[in-house]
Amino acid sequence: MRINRIALAGNPNTGKSTLFNTLTGLKQHTGNWPGKTVIHAEGSFEHNGEQYVLVDLPGTYSLFSNSADEEVARDYIIFDQPDATIVVLDATSLERNLNLALQVLEMTNNVIICINLIDEAEKKGIRIDDKKLARELGVPVVKISARNKKGIQQLLDTLSQLVKGQIVTTPYRMTYSKEIEEAITKIESKLEGYFDEKYPSRWVALRLLDGDEELILKLQHHNKQHEVRTNGVPVSVKS
After folding, report:
1. For 91-114, what is the HEC assignment?
2. Cross-strand bridge partners of residue 45
């Protein structure tokens, strides 16, 4: 039976761990990420006869590799390429939390935006139009209260549809200045064929513009491993 691997991402204090515990119950274990002191939490659950493994990524505010937590979260999404990534947002601090969500949308198409603590938001008079937000972001948006198990069924049903390919996403991607967009296009043309479409070329181009040399070395390393596994022929990128 196929096992769907799901990443759980979010800022600290969004209730992400509560959702992880709600979905996996006692079927979970913890350890350290390889070579890191960062805690690795993983659990499993079943829904409608389908098996899932849920990986609780470290709570982070960004994925720019400014810390070990950010590096672990980023590397899992880009290199392990889970079947779906659930990004947990705090309904009472939506604007601040959306920064991480937009970064994840740059990296993968299979994303669900999970707005948690919706009960707390309602107490504060905050109303969130999830349908409009879904249209703007181009991915499913589900409102939940993990603590009260409200909306969990809808989240699981949406996840099932996403991993089966029954939901087609068109993730929102940031548009930058004319100069940056031209640079992105130029770099993407240089990257064509290099990673065999394994990694999102626009995201890689942005990281190159950021000067993230450590990530580029990792991409090259993983690309070589992929070539060995698939007996591919290396293709070099010429400046």
Report:
1. HHHHHHHHHHHHHHHHHCCCEEEE
2. 52
Contact 199, 216 (CB under 8 A): no
Q: What is the 3-state secondary structure (H, E, C) of the chain?
A: CCEEEEEEEECCCCCHHHHHHHHHCCCEEEEECCCCCCEEEEEEEEECCEEEEEEECCCCCCCCCCCHHHHHHHHHHHHHCCCEEEEEEEHHHHHHHHHHHHHHHHHCCCEEEEEECHHHHHHCCCCCCHHHHHHHHCCCEEECECCCCECHHHHHHHHHHHHCCCCCCCCCCCCCCHHHHHHHHHHHHHHCCCCCCCCCHHHHHHHHHHCCHHHHHHHHHHHHHHHHHHCCCCCCCCC
Confidence class of residue 32 from pLDDT cuts 50, 70 and 90? confident
Tell me the pLDDT tens digit for each residue of 92-151. Answer: 999 999 999 999 999 999 999 999 999 999 999 999 999 999 999 999 999 999 999 999
Mean pLDDT score of the chain: 89
Cβ-based neighbours of 225, under 8 Å, separated by 6 or more: none
Its pTM stands at 0.89
| Contact residues for 81 (Cβ-Cβ < 8 A; gap 6+) | 108
d(CA 190, CA 170): 24
Quote the pLDDT of residue 37: 81
Tell me the per-residue pLDDT of 169-215, one tens digit each, with 9 for 90 and over: 999 999 999 999 999 999 999 888 777 678 898 999 998 898 887 88
Tally of CB atoms within 10 A around 33: 18
